[in-house]
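Structure (tokenized):
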């Protein structure tokens, strides 16, 4: 699995390309949400496994949770809806406070957030599988 650098660079580069191709309709606001999910999203399962084993919860519960979340589609099914509500709310608050600049001044909708979560998850696993293909170990 690649480190945080490739996930971050690929997601930011893809967001920049999408922004160029759509003449700015895919804004930096979209790119930020997409990048957060491509970078940290599905790895939150591994983090929760480490945290729960450190706190003292059962290791079997933690690994079952980590395995369920660190999956291209289960991440979207398990955390997609709660995260889309959270990201939409954060988007609204940050635009009202003037921290984020949006071309239209409108926060991301829940549907947009859910689609960006799904795209970020799939991008994350694309890079994971690209760097850990089944044939890479055979070249040694």
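Design, position by position:
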């Amino acid at each position: 699995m690649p480190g945080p650098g490739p996930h971050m660079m690929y997601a930011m580069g893809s967001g920049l390309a999408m922004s160029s191709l759509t003449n700015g309709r895919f804004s930096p606001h979209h790119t930020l949400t997409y990048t957060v999910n491509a970078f940290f999203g599905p790895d939150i399962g591994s983090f929760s496994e480490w945290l729960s084993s450190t706190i003292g919860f059962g290791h079997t519960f933690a690994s079952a949770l980590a395995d369920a979340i660190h999956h291209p589609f289960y991440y979207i099914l398990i955390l997609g809806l709660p995260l889309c509500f959270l990201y939409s709310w954060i988007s609204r608050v940050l635009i009202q406070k003037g921290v984020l600049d949006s071309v239209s001044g409108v926060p991301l909708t829940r549907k947009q957030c859910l689609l960006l979560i799904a795209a970020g998850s799939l991008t994350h696993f694309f890079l994971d599988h690209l760097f850990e293909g089944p044939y890479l170990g055979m070249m040694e």
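Reviewer-requested clarification: Residues 4-43+74-130 form one domain. Residues 74-97 form the longest helix (24 residues).
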